[in-house]
Amino acid sequence: MRILGIDPGLTATGFGVVDVDGARLHYVASGAIRTSPDDGALLPQRLRTLFDGIGEVVRRYQPTVAALEIVFVNVNPQATLMLGQARGCCLTALVAHDLPVAEYTALQLKKAVVGYGKAHKSQVQEMVRRLLNLPGLPGKDAADALGLCITHAQVARTTAAIARVAPLRARAHAAYKDGRSY
Known about the structure:
Blueprint: E1 2-7, E2 12-21, E3 24-34, H1 43-61, E4 65-70, H2 77-96, E5 101-105, H3 106-113, H4 121-131, H5 140-165, E6 174-176, E7 179-181
Catalytic activity: Endonucleolytic cleavage at a junction such as a reciprocal single-stranded crossover between two homologous DNA duplexes (Holliday junction)
EC number: 3.1.21.10
GO molecular function, one term: DNA binding
């Protein structure tokens, strides 16, 4: 299984690609797709950059599944709306490339990678570095995206083990500890 993790953001959308072979994780690639209003781009053009960037990553690395962060921002309503549009654009790009998409919250990611739901970004970066045997710390956006890959790999193994013991009925929508999978 090759997992593409996406940490959505309007200014920087992190991506990470990890191969899963049984319980082994192998780093493939990571980075960020960046947009900026300082370049004179309006919101529609910035969303187009995200859409096209994700399409390029999908074509280059050929993932079999995607994991996307469910974002919650409550401080600034305008920022929440902008982030929601970026996230929707990312989700649309993944679905447009016929990828199955699993969604996880930041809390789920932190619990899966660090073991503590309120871990700091630096702790996530360090654990991603260790779990994927990277030579250095990944960037913050890439670390979250790679963390989503790790989270999905763990969930997929658990779900497969449960299915072997007690086959699950097919459903259009299923939840795993409040995560969503389509």
